[in-house]
């Protein structure tokens, strides 16, 4: 599986730079230059209107439409919900002497697009050579405010280079956006108002009645406003400014947009409108400059606590900062009720749905950078507990069955083989609760909400499982584990093991609560109707859980019969046949010992401390050669384990495209949006992989190694309220606390109390050779 | 699984009689009173127009429409073809003094609907009490000619009981028929002509461009035609007759319709039209009486060679004749290129598609009643060989992959789990060729067409299979066997065994041809590019085929791991949960040792002579209690094997609803159409079950038993050109040849030469107790 970089952007430690415009790559750039603030996101599309290939995407977290699904069978979904493309609040048109700027038609030079990690802005500049010889330097800058969730802003700077005269600017809001996947728009405008140089509209989605308030105001400097005229068109409200501009003088038009999304239908339109107007009022005094300063200050603080520095490897330095930037853009826990879609807020692919990636790949980033955000993610699951309980009933089970793909807590995967056979979101949630408990020790949350989820999830796993008739052991039949290339199997090792852990953890929390929180225990028992027999049953099930395992080789069998699956040498598959989903008959994918992504290795990563290095080595050596990494989540887990078992070269090779998966468009589908959850995996790859962080055992452990190509790297992490800085070069490792009290951790297996002074230990000899 | 009869029709040995009209049951009756002649079929709908619940269905074998399928993956179908509802050539309207007859609105009495097995007609009579007090006895009779495939006819007899006066009859053709499953009509009329009292139209389907020529002529007797007026409406052509009728005198309007279906688009409309007109010309002189006489004569001949008589059990007597009647109506091999849809030509359910039922359940009926029809069925597969080869390439295999569901030879199942995992049509075709070869010895067909199919089918099975990594044996991974309650398994015993047989048979035919038909062998080798290595490979694969089997118990394991499937006591499932497809979550169906229909027992039926009675008993005793018979094809196979292993009471119990599945609406879905292929299974149930016929071993074997409830039963069968009559009562069995030369068979294991004089042997003691 050779993945090949498509190098295009300039390498810079603090930004991504595109020089020159390539229409063929425009959609890729739109993904890379996407901005978001967890509440909303916009792709980096040319807001002035573009006649070429573009995906004009503007998304609001949790705002969805739905379409009916022709379901054949009971227990499969009937309605599929997806993140709907929403208002284009950046809508702009620029006209000079009747010619409208359009990069698909116009002549221009000096194109440059920059994403600045420290400013949190995207800038796009060019010189427009109009047909009548007029030349204008134009710069668009935009931001999506990290400090004010509802606010987006745009600054347009126009400098006539060889003339003085008139320029027409139309700027406004457009609800005519198409949802490309569905080939239609979903919005109607139910209310609108034009006021001063701005306007407001209330849009409503066709099927779900989700509503979006959107408004804008304009502020012009450096040019005379000859005329300002309101424009009303279907689903569109704008202001047309006629400006007199002077040669060599920059005319600046600032736009501040306020958006407010309403998923519930409870409130009447009038109330929703008033809420929107109130938000607009709160923002009225904010200038673009102020918003921009706030934005830079926010990012400065982020980089102070969350930066990763890599000396001697500019590409990965840029890559990992891009990843951290995207993680914060996608999610930072300021707004309750959100989750992380597989593509974040950067495209329509995966329909804006969240998967198990949230708890297994993204949560660690937040646990060690932003524990509030970590909690908020778990809160999402608690808010959707009723949906999960309903879903369990739909599949003839009890308790809570968390959906494999969701935007609002309901199942939104229309493939029964995934929605009904993939059980591993529930155990991922339980793992997330356990992990959060270990690192953050938020017992209030655990004893009230966490435990209720654990009880209901356990109930599901206690009714979905069955007893093998021959083995006499408990397990899950008719399932698909994390490895999606084994479609419908029995006793998937990962699912069985995670269920066993679930039962044990639920029981231990309930046991702990007997002593620590008897009142809370009483409350949750009453609320859930928990019975003692259930606890006994869960103990039985955990004890009798089948974990397919070959004593002789020490290899876990991914599922019953996996060892007999026909062998294929994955290196014999021609590169042209990837991705296999597109090139192989669907059924053929599922008939080999080939795996798509880690499954046995996944639980060895999650419960790392429970397995010896030897066990990890044996299983790595068996499964890695069978894995084709058709999931972008796959290489990082392999890299982390490879580093642990001393396969440093492999660890680095697997790492190679982790941080730059999208920047270098390795999978050739960045055009659809960023691989947001893979970005989280890239962070884990450095911190868990090279940093050797382990957070599943007793306390926290570090065991850094360093790729030979790097001079030095360092990362920060928040742990028990303190900020730790880990710095490693080819010779030594330094760990210190930069903020807060000293903390106890283990370094290379040795206990250490880390304070401001820090400790220094030598880097072990076996360093990583650069990938050759 | 308690199936309960819904007794409704009168029991009669030679007809089905409905007395009184029950609107709730009208759709069921429309299925029961459906007529067909393999070329076309009409449901028994009220042709005078009915405002109540009706499925006005008129079908032409092989005439199809298609709809796009939203396929997610490669190797799954993109277009689904289905038998399209076509012209209502029985279209009639009767008006008296402005009131139009409609059984949903009108007052009427004396309703009686009769299907006559000897006349091959459906008669429907009633007395209409019009609002103004006028009373008319009305009788509709219809037939679909068994001797003239394109011809259908209707006789309407109207007798004014208490008045003389005017009656208006509108009669014609209507292409406005709705395809209910799709909620739309598919026809446009591309040409029309009105001539004399009749008219002709050429209809064309919207997506596929299939065409249907339809025409009618009217002939009136016993009434004065006051006026005859052509009616042209959209998609409709009719004649409106104003008749003067005399009290007490029967006015008769006969309608002869000529229909011709054109599936190919090659010929221009004009040519197709001319063909239709020529057919109309050939029928011009045929009166209803003539057609009716021909029809009765045809059926007389059928009953002479194919009747089954049961003395002492009027319900099963009626039932089995209904079955035989339907088998001939659905298919008798006069028209090349047809197959047998799961519902024949009686409804939209199963979309008119043919499955593996054709070769495994229907073929034996034709082998022993109408060998020409048997051959024609196999010809269907030969005609569609190119489609099967194309399909094999779509799933990344070689050779020919016959579709699990088809109308024209292309795959038309839109569920990947069936279309891509169910491999057993190909081996069913091979089995059919083998069976046909054994019974009919048509070597010309075998050496030219049969062998070509065998080679291509073998190629498919040699590329779809794989080697188990642990077992070192060959087999099929990711498959669904006949038992559709084990959805995606490895080494399904049935599939593996049938593939082994396929390879062996293909090799033996090729071997035989070396001596018997070297030129034909050369031809087929050249045509298929057959290589010696392939033959060697097939030998290897057959030899190393994995047949999961437990030496200790003698039980074949349905597939790898079946013995570990969680147990469910199928009798613990509440009756209200059937059918399980409607009441259980889809994934739940597949997680037990519960089977839907015979799988291991199926191959023990097909290759009966290769298994000892002990082996059959052991496997029957294991699998029967796990089978819920959710397929209507299931009980008959169990009944046949139960009879063989001496479980006579069970044999009779399983037989109970075989012949009357539709007459008594056991599955409560006869409204959708008849269970045509189950009807074939009912025939096998008597002939293979009680008759003890075995046709898979050396020569033919009989071993009759008799249910205690029966005084006597007899059946005829054609074998090696002779007609055998088998007659059995509680004391003895008589077998004789009634036509043709003497034949050698075995009776209760003893060789016997049967001639006109016949042989008589005592009935063995263990007779069947009536089901209690």
From TrEMBL, chains A, B:
KW Hydrolase (keyword) present: yes
The entry's keywords: Hydrolase
Domain of life, source organism: Bacteria
Residues annotated as signal peptide: none
Residue span(s) of domain Glycoside hydrolase family 65 central catalytic: 321-684
Residue span(s) of domain Glycoside hydrolase family 65 N-terminal: 17-258
Pfam families named in the record: Glyco_hydro_65C, Glyco_hydro_65m, Glyco_hydro_65N
GO molecular function: hydrolase activity
Residue intervals of the Glycoside hydrolase family 65 C-terminal domain: 693-752
InterPro entries named in the record: 6-hairpin_glycosidase_sf, 6hp_glycosidase-like_sf, Gal_mutarotase_sf_dom, GH65_N, Glyco_hydro_65_C, Glyco_hydro_65_M, Glyco_hydro_65_N, Malt_Pase/Glycosyl_Hdrlase
SUPFAM superfamilies in UniProt: Galactose mutarotase-like, Six-hairpin glycosidases
UniProt keyword Ion transport present: no
Family according to the record: Belongs to the glycosyl hydrolase 65 family.
PANTHER family to which the protein is assigned, alphabetical: GLYCOSYL HYDROLASE-RELATED (PTHR11051), MALTOSE PHOSPHORYLASE (PTHR11051:SF14)
Protein name as catalogued: Glycosyl hydrolase family 65 protein
């Amino acid at each position: 599986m050779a993945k090949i970089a498509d190098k295009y952007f300039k390498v810079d430690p603090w930004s991504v730079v595109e020089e020159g415009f390539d229409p063929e790559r425009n959609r890729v750039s739109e993904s890379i230059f996407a901005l978001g603030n967890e509440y909303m996101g916009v792709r980096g599309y040319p807001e002035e209107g573009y006649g070429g290939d573009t995906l004009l995407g503007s998304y609001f977290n949790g705002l969805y439409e739905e379409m009916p699904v022709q379901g054949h069978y009971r227990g499969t979904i009937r309605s599929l919900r997806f993140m709907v493309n929403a208002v284009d609040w950046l809508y702009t048109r620029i006209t000079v002497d009747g010619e409208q700027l359009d990069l698909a038609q116009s002549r221009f030079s000096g194109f440059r697009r920059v994403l600045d990690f420290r400013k949190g802005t995207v800038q796009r500049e060019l010189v427009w050579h109009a047909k009548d010889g007029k030349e204008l330097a134009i710069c668009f800058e935009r931001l999506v405010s990290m400090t004010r969730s509802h606010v987006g802003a745009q600054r347009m700077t126009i400098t006539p280079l060889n003339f003085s005269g008139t320029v027409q600017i139309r700027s406004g809001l457009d609800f005519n956006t198409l949802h490309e996947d569905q080939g239609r728009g979903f919005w109607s405008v139910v209310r609108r108002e034009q006021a001063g140089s701005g306007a407001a509209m209330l849009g409503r989605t066709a099927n779900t009645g989700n509503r979006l308030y959107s408004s804008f105001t304009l502020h012009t400097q450096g040019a005379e406003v000859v005329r300002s005229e309101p424009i009303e068109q279907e689903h569109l409200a704008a202001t047309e400014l006629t400006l007199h501009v002077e040669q060599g003088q920059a005319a600046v038009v600032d736009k501040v947009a306020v958006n407010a999304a309403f998923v519930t239908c409870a409130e009447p339109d009038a109330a929703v409108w008033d809420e929107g107007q109130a938000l607009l009022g709160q923002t009225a005094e904010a200038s673009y400059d102020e918003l921009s300063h706030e934005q830079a200050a926010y990012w400065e603080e982020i980089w102070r606590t969350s930066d990763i520095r890599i000396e001697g490897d500019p590409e990965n330095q840029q890559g990992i900062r891009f990843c951290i930037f995207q993680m914060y853009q996608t999610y930072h826990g300021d707004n309750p009720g959100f989750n992380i879609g597989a593509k974040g807020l950067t495209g329509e692919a995966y329909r804006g749905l969240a998967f198990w990636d949230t708890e297994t790949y993204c949560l660690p980033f937040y646990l060690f950078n932003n524990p509030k955000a970590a909690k908020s993610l778990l809160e999402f699951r608690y808010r959707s507990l009723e949906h999960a309980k309903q879903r369990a009933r739909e599949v003839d089970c009890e308790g809570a069955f968390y959906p494999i793909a969701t935007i609002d807590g309901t199942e939104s995967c229309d493939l029964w083989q995934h929605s009904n056979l993939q059980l591993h979101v529930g155990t991922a949630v339980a793992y997330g609760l356990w992990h959060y408990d270990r690192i953050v020790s938020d017992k209030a949350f655990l004893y009230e909400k966490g435990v209720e989820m654990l009880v209901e999830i356990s109930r599901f796993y206690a009714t979905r499982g069955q007893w093998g008739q021959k083995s006499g052991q408990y397990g899950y039949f008719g399932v698909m584990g994390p490895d999606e290339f084994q479609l419908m199997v029995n006793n998937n090792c990962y699912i069985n093991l995670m269920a066993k852990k679930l039962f044990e953890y639920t029981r231990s929390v309930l046991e702990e609560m007997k002593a620590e929180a008897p009142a809370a225990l009483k409350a949750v028992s009453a609320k859930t109707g928990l019975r003692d027999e259930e606890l006994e049953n869960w103990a039985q099930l955990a004890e009798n859980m089948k974990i397919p395992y070959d004593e002789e080789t020490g290899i876990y069998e991914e599922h019953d019969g996996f060892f007999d699956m026909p062998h294929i040498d994955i290196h014999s598959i021609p590169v042209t046949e990837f991705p296999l989903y597109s090139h192989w008959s669907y059924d053929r994918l599922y008939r080999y010992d080939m795996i798509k992504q880690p499954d046995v290795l996944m639980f060895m990563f999650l419960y790392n401390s429970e397995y010896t290095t030897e066990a990890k080595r044996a299983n790595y050596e068996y499964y890695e050669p069978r894995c084709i990494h058709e999931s972008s989540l796959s290489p990082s887990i392999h890299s982390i384990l490879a580093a642990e078992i001393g396969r440093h070269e492999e660890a680095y090779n697997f790492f190679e495209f982790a941080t730059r998966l999208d920047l270098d468009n390795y999978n050739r589908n960045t055009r659809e949006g960023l691989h947001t959850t893979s970005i989280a995996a890239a962070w884990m790859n450095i911190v868990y992989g090279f940093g050797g962080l382990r957070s599943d055992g007793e306390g926290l452990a570090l065991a850094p190694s360093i790729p030979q190509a790097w001079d030095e790297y360092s990362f920060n992490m928040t742990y028990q309220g303190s900020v730790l800085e880990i710095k490693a070069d080819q010779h030594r490792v330094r760990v210190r606390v930069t903020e807060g009290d000293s903390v106890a951790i283990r370094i290379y297996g040795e206990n250490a109390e880390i304070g401001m002074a820090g400790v220094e230990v030598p880097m072990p000899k076996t360093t990583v050779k650069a990938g050759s």
